[in-house]
Specification:
17 helices; mainly alpha; single chain; 409 residues; Growth Hormone, Chain: A
Amino acid sequence: MDLQAKVNNRNVIFLVIVTALGYFVDIYDLVLFSVVRVQSLTEIGVSPENMRSDGFLIINSQMFGLLLGGILWGILGDKLGRIKVLFGSILLYSLANIANGFVTSVNSYAIIRFIAGIGLAGELGAGITLVAETMDKEKRGYGTMIFGAIGLLGAAVAATVASKYTWQTSYFVGGGMGLVLLLLRVGTFESGMFKHAAKTDISKGNILMLFNNKKRFLKYLYCILIGIPLWFVVGILVTLAPEFGKALGATEPLKAGTGIMFTYFGIAIGDVVTGLLAQVLKSRRKTVFIFHLLSVVSVVIYLTSFGLNSSSFIWICLFMGFSVGYWATFVTIASEQFGTNIRATVTTTAPNFVRGALIPITFVFEFFTQKYGLIAAGYIVMGILTIIAVFGLSQLKESFNKDLDYLEE
């Protein structure tokens, strides 16, 4: 290997690590509310009977911010470049999280989480797009695997920090890590594919391209559908662990923070395994299908674990997290389905629409909970979402080893 090739490899490795660390901070901040929900809402005066409804208001505000931010950063990523999005998004959500440590009411909490959500929306899509476009097509699965595994450990750190410090300090730590990371970003470089596309006159970052062509729209929709069971597991089944613990007759109170931490440990492990399995099978579609089936098994185990204790809860969360550990692979699939001129738009909006889907999912879950109870609602909603996801997956073409250097007309 000549000197220039070694330098290029070193630069690519540095890029993967720095983008992964950005996702690490992103996930830390993204799940922090779920971890500190009970503690923070109690301290600002929310009554136990309003804990769930006010919590849903705040998490849905964050998710709505993710929806809008996904569109904003996706378009900017295709128009101005992937690197600029990585800088802008992390600056916004870092400042928002510092501000979050000063909230004193539910409304101010919801507003700050909305702003943070806008910032959090840019990191994942821009990072995956940059890694996918920079690495060799035969190896990019490994790059996105490392990206996802390192990033998802941010949830474990969020739970650890929250267990040792106040909820305000936990938000300050997240904001501080983001600002420090900005210094590391100085050494990163832009995607060559983006630079090439920038020289052409073809439309870039035009989100309407995803809706003005039926075939392209359906492909985009299917990309979104394959990821929605994951956020039901994390956003409802684990976040509402205290409530599910009571319904299951747990021998001791279940802590959402602990559940989140071990669920994300499982997701990080799952991301590594799905990345490796996709390389072995040479198919991302088959890999995600296998994990969809595993996720159903894990949820059934959770919802039938009557009389569980903290120890068994941890193992169940670890397994549930592992079974939905196809997040980075799902985002990579979305990235590989579209041309360079709208790739960042797709890769940034798709996962954020999946996250944002938690908003209607919470309403559907609440509807079934009122009619049939918490446990039955968990079965029903997970079943519906898995059927939808598997259908979406079946409609997509395999993208493993696909050449990404092309433009959408």
